[in-house]
Each structure stands twice: as structure tokens, then as C-alpha cells.
Amino acid sequence: MPRSTALVRALARSSSVAACLVGMLVLVGWALDVMVLKSMGAAIPAMRPSAALGLMLGGVALGLRLPASTHRARHRLGTALALATALVGAASLVDGVVTGGNGGLDALFLRAFGADGGAPSAAASPLTGLCLMLLGPALALVDRGHPQRLSWSDALVVLALMAALTGLNSFLLGPLVTPAAAPYFQERSLGLHTTLVLMLLAMGTLCARPELGLMARLTRDTLGGFVARRLVPVTLLGPPVLGLTLVLLDLTGELSHDAKLPLFATVVAAGGATLVLLAARALDVLDTERMRATAALEASEERFRTFLDTAPDPMVVVDASGRVRFANAEAERVFGYRRQALLGREVALLVPGGLQGPSAGEGPGRATGGRLVTGQRQDGTGVPLEVRLSPLEGEDDATRIAILRDVTERRDLEKLREEYVGLISHDLRNPLNTINLRAHLLQRALHERKLEREGHMAQAIIHNVEWMSTMIEELLEGSRLESGRVTLHREARDLGRFLEEVLERDVPPDTRERFRLHREESLPPVPIDAARLERVVTNLLTNALKYSPKGTPVDVRLSAVHDHAVVSVTNQGPGLSARDAARLFDKYYRTEDGRLQDGKGLGLGLYISRLIVEAHSGHIWVESEPDRGITFFFSVPLQLPGAPTKSEPLRQRTG
Q1: Residue 555 has what pLDDT?
Q2: 138/338 Cα distance (integer angstroms)
Q3: How far, in Å, are 58, 80, 452 from residue 61 at the CA level?
Q4: Measured between alpha carbons, how far is 35 from 31 in angstroms, rounded to an integer?
Q5: Which residues contact 316 (CB under 8 A, 6 or more apart)?
Q6: What is the DSSP string of 474-538?
Q7: Three-point CA angle 68, 69, 71, nearest 5°
Q8: I need a surface site. Which of 213, 240, 306, 607 has the fewest CB within 10 A?
Q9: pTM of the full predicted structure?
């Protein structure tokens, strides 16, 4: 909450308490016939009982209005008391016109107090009744959420405040034109304490809703609010303070009556000039702050431009219409255009296919999270690019900054790596196939001769050959998926039936009873590459068996979340640390438990599963806590996507 708003709320609460307290003390003074309580001073006119009642009712009504949200009963009681305040003010006005202030409510109070002889001698001031009659409806209209009603409330409060200020100025400035000052105080029917409490109650009503209406203009952190907070108090309180000073000087004999008006005019002129200087100073402070902020912004922009200009990758800023607004030096070098020639031109000049290319998850740039496009140099030659798009912070017109990384060297390295892996795997596959064939023949011959010990040795050879073949196949599959040269053979499949078939086909019979399949019946057929997705499911099922206690159940769930089918596999194993969960799908990464239980693995199973799922435009993730089990999720779109989908919100919804 801003400091000015907090001060305004405190003023509203103080006004409510002060109005109630003064009204109560005056009524007690009339009841006990204590002049000090009635007049708050010997030389100041006494406050009439009707005025004290009106102030007390208004103070309570304001207190009930202060909470931003009130109960219905409290709201109705506040409205009733506010209207009662208006009725008291109207009755006082009528009494002043008809009986001259000697009848009506005041007479009733005096008879009730048994003080018929103590009636006030001075005529009732119409300003007191007028203020109460205006403040009552204003308090009744203070209602959060109704700006039109609040504007009427502000208008009534301003009128009441002007009436009370008129009474205060007439009380203090009257001696400027009255030869004798002391009798003047005793003849005023509107006492000083009455005027001050009325002004305080009016200010409290304005402050009841500091974030709305007229008071909001004072509490806002704007130029108008800054100037108003400094000038309005001086403008309203300056003349009364000046009048009080002149009266005190006159009472002490320090100032002659003839010098009052000239001195008052001089001080008012000086006060006006002071107000102008204060306004000028306030504007100077704001202008200095504005210039400082502008200089800081310009320096920040210069640093930002320097950062962009010295970046090692081509960078361009593109507006909502697709036009280039900035290009750095590296963009000039890569594309061959001068910077001035690019500004204001369509970005299609550099990237004919547009910046929204295929997801890098479908190509060799998947690991970096960019998009792959083909750029065009000034000489017409193409250049492979990885594009990263980011919206500029604070821009409302979809302005984006595009980082265009030249991936020519990376593509050459990936092609070389693929050729190398293919060559190595081909050279390894042939001798392994020969070893496998001969080992099977040897095992058969040993079995026929009933040489069991030698047959077990041959079986160990076959097992290790199969393990090496699996590693080679994983290396090849990972290389193919990373290169983006894999074509998915999609067909619409019933995903629930597909999971049942995988459980029947790929899970050993002695462990099949541990799996519990939960599926949604209304799920439509999903386009998938069944062979590759079976590899993902089998990997997750195998891991669930391997890393959970024997005999514990494994839950497999299939559900639809918006436009994706989500499969989860949950076991009751020891769980994962946050570090392991964050890196579990990285290439060659293995947990400590995984290395202890299976020393032969390469850490490619979950990595390849991630590549397969992302090739389907899906997402795979894990949720786990130590000693709380592990749940693997993967999602695939229910329909072939026209553009890559955002999977992170999906993770939040399913998790």
C-alpha cells in the first residue's frame, strides 16, 4: 500500500473517532451543565445539542463505512445513521428559520437534561445544519464499486467542506473588519470546535475510499497527485492560519486595527507567490527525475544495442508486421546485406520460408531447442539456420528478437558422425553375426554330446553377442533419430489395445500379474508409429520391474488431457533425487542405482525413448521423490499436429 494511501486511511479513522468523541463530550456537558465541555473554552460559543448529536451520528456512520467489504447488516446500519445525520441537519435548519434556534431538537434536549434556563443565547448558525444535511447523504452514498454514487458523494462533501471553511474563516477573519476582537468571539454562533470537527468529518468522508473518486487524485503517484498533495493543504489552511495569527497579534496589542487589512493583503500576495514557487519546485523535481530516468533508459538501450551488435550469432529484431527493425554486424556478415538495406524490409528477404520452421526436435538441432530454417544470402546461396524467437520484454506489439545461428558446420559434423557410426556398426555387425551363428551351432553340438558345462559357456557367448548387438542397434537408432532422417510410419491405433498387446508380448509371464492397466474407454484412435512407440513402452515397463521391489504392483494408466493422450507407468521403487530426475533423459546418463544393478547398460534407453516421443510431437517426463516411487509419463497428440505443441503446460496439468 502506498504511504499516502495509508495516511489517508488513518485520517479517515481519526475523523470518525474525533467526531464521535466530541459529540459525546458536548452532550455530556449539556447534561451535566459543564461549560468547558459545551464550548471547549470559556470565550468560544457552545456547541448546540443538535449539532453534537449530528456529529456523533456522522462519526459512527463513517466508522461503519470504513471497511472495504462490510456485512449487509453493518452496511444498512451505516446508511441509516447517515440519513439520520441528514435529518438532524435539516431539523436544525428548519428550527433556525422558524424559531430562531430556540425550539426544535435543542429545546427537547434541554428539557430532557433539565436545563431550561441554560439555553444558548446566540442565534443558531445555518452553516452547522447545512453541513450536517450535506454530509448525511454523502456518507450514505459512499459505496465501493459504484463510481457514479461516489462522484455524488464527493460533490456533497466538497460543498459541506466549503460551508465549514466559510464558518472557520468568518470566525478567524472577522476581527479584521471588527474594531473589537474579544466580543467578536462571544457573538459567533458557529464555534471554533464545531467548525473544526465538521471539517474533519468532511475530510474523513472523502478519505473513506482513497483509491476512488476525488481522493484518488491526491493519492496517485502521478504528476497531478504529486502537485496536489503539496498545494491543496496550503491553499485550504493558509487563510485560516493567517487570520488566527493576525487575531492573536491584535489581542496581544502587537498590531493596530488599521494595519490588519494591508498586512492580510500583503501576506496573501506573498502566499500566492509561494504557491507558485512550490509548484515550480515540484515540477522541477519531477523534471529532474524524468531526465534521470530518460538518461538511464538511453544508456540501457545503448548497452542493449552494443550487446546485440557484438553477439557471435546473427540477430534481428522483427516487429508484428514481420519487418526488420534491427540487425547486428554478424547478420551483415552471414547474409551479405548492409544493415541499412535490411531495416524496414520483410524478414522473408533473409528467411524465405519464414521464421516458424519445423521444430528442432525433428532435426539435428533438437538438443538446443531451436527451429530449423533455411536462410538466403544476398548472392542467392542458402544457409542452414537454427532460429530462436523471444518476445522483447515490455513490448505490446508482438515485437520479437530472432537469433539466427548458422548450423552449417554442425550439420557437416553430424553427417560425419552418422557416417562414422554407420561404418563402425557395419564393421562390427558382420563379425558379430558370424560369432552368433557359430556359437549357436557350437551350443547345439555340445547339447547333442551332453556336455552341459561347455554348453553353458556357449550360452554365455551368445548372451554377450546379443548384448553387443543391442548396443550397436541403440547407437544406430539414436544416431538416426538425432539426424532427423527417420520417417515415422504412423497409423491410427487404439492406444488401450496397443498397451494390452505390449504387456502380453513383451512382459515375461511370471511378472505379468504385477501390472495393472487403467484406461479411458472413450479415447479415440491415435496416430502412432507402433513399432517405435512399443520400444518406449517396453523400456518403461522393464525399468519399472527392474527398480521396484519384487511383488509390488506397477500401475499403467492411459488418459486424455485436452488434445493429448497421456500414458503413465508408476512403480513403488526407492524414487529419484531431484538431480537424477533432471538428467534422466540425457544421453549416456545413468543413476547410481542403475549402474549397481546393471553394469552393462549404456544409458541410451530413456534417451532414445525421449527422441521417439518428441518425434511424435509429444513429451516425456518423470515425477519422483526419494522413497516415494517413480512415475514416468509420455504424451502423444490425438491428431497429427499442424505445428509443434507446447508440452510444459501438459506436464503441469497431469502432474
Answers
A1: 93
A2: 68
A3: 5, 8, 103
A4: 11
A5: 324, 326, 327, 328, 331, 342, 347, 350, 401, 402, 404
A6: HHHHHHHHHHT-PPP--EEE-HHHHHHHHHHHHS-GGGGGGEEEEE-TTPPPEEE-HHHHHHHHH
A7: 140
A8: 306
A9: 0.44
